[in-house]
């Protein structure tokens, strides 16, 4: 999976490289800087085909972002008028130097990437973890170095001793997932953290660690969990996140006393935050991303019940100008996009389908998979929430499946808002990805729904 993500990112990088070289040729201003930048990009273009092991390419995960910036910079030289170019010349030279520095720091990594590939081939197992401690930490610091180039705050590298002390020897479990266990901790400077400790010696855990570190670290958004840093010593692979206090949306919907279970305003607010996070990934992040595992268990809630999207272990870079990407991902049962399942082509619309399932969970209070009575078999069988709830909603009977814990009878304004959420869910759940809405439309509908609920509350005061 991580390998496909890296290949996809590098394919996108290949497209950018030719665009930069073309644009640099025609840029009127800062010509020397443009040419310098283009010659560095040309070097990358020549080196890339020689590095063929996607796992070994992890240290280059920030390449897409650096090239995107280089492309924008060169393009901005082409676009602006003469007066602007005159006055902005100094500022642009500074930006050129900065971007060139970042590209230089990636160029330095190419020989090391070649060595990792060689070590993996000699070892024959394909595990980076078989490198000895010294090589392993140099790989790690290379990854961190690259990442810190793309984030002004820099990735933190923690030692095993620091993590052991922070978690009081892995004493408090916050949760368990497919790739490992998450522990509560407190760093020496007082920051509360959640530490994901990946299962030892598991190939998929190793890949998830690399993917999540490369993909999530540069991302910064109020509705996306913050990755503070990582620890890679010997067999240990750990990611350190800010601690998000109030568990997952799934936990809260399961808890009758939770403010989320008992309030439509809180529920629609959580949906809106999650949709804004996906909007950021699909439309704003550099490089663009597809989350691939949007579930109610991957939406964490902080102490003010603000949602933070987590679970980036399956995420992929979204190649620009590509309609669908042939990547191999495993989605959670109940959230699987039927189009991806049948074609293997991943689109941003895959996240829209999973978000549609989360909307149904919020409306009905049910799990993504529900047990129903099967008359012919005279027994309970599992079915997806989509097949249980969607036909009723589409028949205009939302009230028959609506969760009654927030209010036994919604007010007219609440009903209007919930109907809007339900019809948005219904179009997100269309079989063909191209018939689903784009994420900005979903955000707009959820904003409207939340507004209706808030207006109603003011009306009653
Ligand atoms: N930053 C965090 N703050 C608090 N709790 C967290 C945090 N991250 C994860 N958890 C808890 O740990 C659980 C498992 O985390 P996560 O889903 O990221 O693991 P995973 O192994 O990637 O799971 P999967 O691959 O099955 O989605 C979460 O459901 C949540 O309860």
Automatic annotation (TrEMBL):
Provide the binding site for ATP: 196
- UniProt keyword annotations, A-Z: ATP-binding, Nucleotide-binding
Q: Where is the Protein kinase domain?
A: 168-450
Q: Which N-terminal stretch is annotated as signal sequence?
A: none
Q: Which GO terms describe its biological process?
A: cell surface receptor signaling pathway
Q: Which domain of life is it from?
A: Eukaryota
Matching entries from SUPFAM superfamilies are given as:
Protein kinase-like (PK-like) (SSF56112)
Entry GO MF terms = ATP binding; protein kinase activity
Q: Can you say what this protein is called?
A: Protein kinase domain-containing protein
């Amino acid at each position: 999976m991580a390998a496909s993500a890296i290949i996809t990112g590098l394919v996108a990088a290949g497209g950018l490289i030719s665009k930069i070289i073309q644009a640099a040729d025609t840029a009127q201003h800062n010509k020397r800087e443009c040419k310098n930048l283009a010659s560095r990009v040309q070097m990358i273009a020549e080196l890339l085909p020689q590095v063929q092991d996607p796992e070994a390419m992890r240290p280059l995960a920030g390449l897409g972002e650096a090239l995107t910036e280089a492309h924008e910079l060169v393009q901005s030289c082409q676009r602006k008028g003469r007066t602007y170019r005159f006055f902005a010349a100094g500022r642009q030279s500074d930006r050129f130097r900065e971007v060139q520095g970042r590209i230089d720091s990636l160029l330095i990594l190419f020989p090391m990437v070649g060595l990792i590939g060689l070590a993996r081939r000699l070892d024959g197992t394909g595990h980076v973890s078989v490198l000895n401690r010294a090589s392993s930490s140099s790989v790690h610091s290379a990854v961190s170095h690259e990442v810190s180039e793309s984030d002004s705050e820099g990735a933190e590298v923690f030692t095993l001793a620091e993590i052991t002390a922070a978690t009081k020897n892995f004493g408090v479990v916050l949760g368990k997932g497919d790739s490992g266990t998450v522990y509560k901790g407190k760093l020496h400077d007082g920051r509360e953290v959640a530490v994901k400790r990946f299962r030892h010696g598991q190939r998929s855990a190793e890949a998830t660690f690399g993917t999540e570190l490369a993909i999530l670290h540069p991302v910064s958004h109020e509705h996306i969990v913050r990755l503070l840093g990582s620890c890679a010593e010997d067999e240990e692979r750990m990611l350190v996140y800010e601690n998000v206090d109030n568990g997952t949306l799934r936990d809260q919907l399961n808890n009758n006393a939770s403010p989320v279970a008992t309030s439509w305003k809180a529920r629609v607010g959580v949906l809106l935050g999650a949709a804004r996070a996906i909007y950021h990934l699909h439309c704003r992040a550099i490089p663009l991303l597809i989350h691939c595992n949007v579930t109610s268990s991957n939406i964490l809630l902080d102490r003010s019940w603000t949602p933070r999207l987590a679970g980036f272990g399956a995420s992929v870079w979204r190649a620009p100008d590509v309609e669908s990407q042939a990547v191999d991902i495993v989605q959670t049962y109940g959230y699987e996009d039927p189009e991806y399942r049948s074609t293997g082509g991943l689109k941003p619309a895959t996240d829209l389908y999973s978000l549609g399932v989360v909307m149904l969970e919020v409306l009905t209070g049910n799990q993504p998979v529900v047990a129903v009575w099967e008359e012919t078999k005279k027994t309970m069988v599992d079915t997806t929430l989509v097949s249980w709830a969607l036909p009723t909603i589409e028949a205009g009977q939302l009230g028959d499946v609506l969760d009654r814990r927030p209010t036994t009878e919604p007010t007219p304004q609440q009903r209007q808002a919930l109907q809007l959420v339900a019809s948005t869910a219904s179009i997100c759940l269309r079989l063909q990805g191209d018939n689903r809405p784009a994420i900005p439309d979903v955000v707009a509908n959820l904003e409207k729904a939340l507004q209706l609920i808030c207006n109603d509350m003011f009306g009653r005061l």
